[in-house]
TrEMBL record:
It comes from Vagococcus silagei. Coiled coil: none annotated. This is (P)ppGpp synthetase. Residues 55-178 form the RelA/SpoT domain. One of its GO terms (biological process) is guanosine tetraphosphate biosynthetic process. Gene3D superfamilies: Beta Polymerase, domain 2, Nucleotidyltransferase. Pathway: Purine metabolism; ppGpp biosynthesis; ppGpp from GTP: step 1/2.
């Protein structure tokens, strides 16, 4: 069913917002619980396993633009079927091994379904972009109904986030494709990746000395 007026679209988005924000809240709580346990000295006891969690519900404008690119019109059914990144969580970890450890723990929870994983860490994008993108689905219990809702979880390290944030800003400023600048940006991603691997190796040595 297509909503016909602008007011109906805004009303529909308002209802969708409640669903998607609630799904974000559920996953964010799960991540905070995992982090609390991991940061306990009795377990691995390392501060800042999850450095930061950022969340957002995609704006109505971004949803409409994305649907237009796919030649689709806005409706709740179409958004639910076609878009998996309306609810977005970005989790920034300190080290690469934390990324996979937290994801494994989350994926093992009985109410969490992993629908898709795109591993741009093992296979970086040509731009140099590295991150782990995961589409999850969870049931959310509302006043009268239970809905299964998709959430896109982007997991990256502090180093990957540093690169992605700066590159994102620069790419918008680049009006035409400049192969030399693109190559140099890609090289910075490699340098940062080498740097964070070195930090990980130093951490492992220190941990081995403590044990
Ligand atoms: P924004 O403004 O960050 O939200 P789609 O999601 O349909 O567009 P796809 O292939 O499913 O396409 O998504 P993909 O490429 O797996 O992930 C898209 C998101 O990853 C982007 O969101 C960015 O946040 C991030 N991303 C992907 N490639 C790059 C890159 O080269 N550099 C940076 N900095 N970020 C990247 P949006 O919606 O494009 O943008």
């Amino acid at each position: 069913k297509q909503p016909d007026t602008l007011l109906q679209i805004i009303d529909e988005y308002g209802r969708m917002f409640i669903y998607y924000q609630s799904a974000i809240d559920e996953i964010e709580t799960k991540l905070k619980i995992i982090d609390r346990e991991l940061s306990n000295p009795g377990t691995i006891g390392r501060k800042n396993v999850i450095h930061q969690i950022q969340t957002r519900v995609k704006s109505l404008e971004s949803i409409v633009k994305k649907l237009e690119r796919k030649d689709l019109q806005f409706s709740r059914e179409i958004v639910e079927k076609e878009l998996s990144d309306v609810a977005g969580i970005r989790m920034i970890c300190s080290y690469i091994d934390d990324i996979y450890a937290v994801l494994d723990s989350l994926a093992a929870q009985s109410d969490v379904t992993v629908l898709e994983i795109k591993d741009y860490i093992k296979n970086p994008k040509p731009s140099g972009y590295r991150s782990l993108h995961v589409i999850l689905e969870i049931p959310v219990f509302f006043f009268k109904e239970t809905k299964r809702i998709k959430v896109e979880l982007q997991i990256r390290t502090i180093a990957m986030d540093f690169w992605a944030s700066l590159e994102h800003g620069l790419r918008y400023k680049l009006e035409t494709d400049d192969p030399d600048l693109s190559r140099r940006l890609e090289q910075t991603a490699t340098t940062i990746s080498n740097l964070e691997n070195e930090m990980l190796m130093i951490r492992s040595k220190i941990e081995a000395q403590i044990e």
